[in-house]
Amino acid sequence: MNFYVVDAFANDPFKGNPAGVVILKEDIPKSIKQLIASEVKFSETAFIKKISENYFKIEYFTPVSEIDLCGHATIATFYVLKEKNLVFPNNKYNLHTNVGKLTILIENDLVLMEQAKPELGKVYDKETIAEILGINSEELDERFKLQASYTGLWDLLIPIKKKETLLKLEPNLEKIKEFTKENNIVSFHLFTLDEKEALANTRDFAPLYGINEEAATGTANGALLYYLYKNNLIDEKKVYKIIQGESMNRKSEIFGKIENEKVFIGGKAKIIIEGNLKV
């Protein structure tokens, strides 16, 4: 099995969000996929198999469990496929995931991933969330609700007023873990619009899935784009940049757009390591 370590949402090595990518010629049991993901210990490892000329099947595993969808691992995977001439620029591909069939666009150097049909969910109490984050509720951006949003996974979107607050806060990870488990949410996705270089700056915490903090989160930033679109803050068809990972010294650039109520998230990537799995 061909194995790759890829920095997704990055222009340079050792930036962005690393993912494992395994290209399968024949399928292997889920139990083996989980053992591989646990061994390599990336936040997500993707396993992809070609079904037909323009159709692929993908599965995602964290070190502790399978998850239904992962944006940055998808970007990493299709970047590898592009580099190995298994997919080609300016083409469209179909991808089978646990949340259904999605579209992948290869637009020059960008890999763009259609996310699952978006929706907004429950609104949560500001005081409760502020206490978990270790900040005062006044440091939340009062223009926005604390609301769950879905583009394949449910993430809780938490608006922070100032970038300085966002980058310095140290949340209670155990309380996030308890809260996300009780409310069937994958992550706390914090964002601020106090960012000069991009639409937003974000941080993402998913300790329930073994990810204390992630440097780039495709699905959660897709959920954020849809949330901002529904709050009339972004336009259709325009590509926006979101920054994540600065607090981890792994600055990532995530690109996305809304088109016909569909959410597309993507970026560039760098292959860092390639080899063979002896399994």
Automatic annotation (TrEMBL):
GO terms for cellular component: cytoplasm. The active site is at E44. Coiled coil: none annotated. GO terms for molecular function: isomerase activity. Keywords: Isomerase. Gene3D superfamilies: Diaminopimelate Epimerase, Chain A, domain 1. It comes from the Bacteria. It holds the Pfam family PhzC-PhzF. SUPFAM superfamilies: Diaminopimelate epimerase-like. Belongs to the PhzF family. This is Protein YddE.
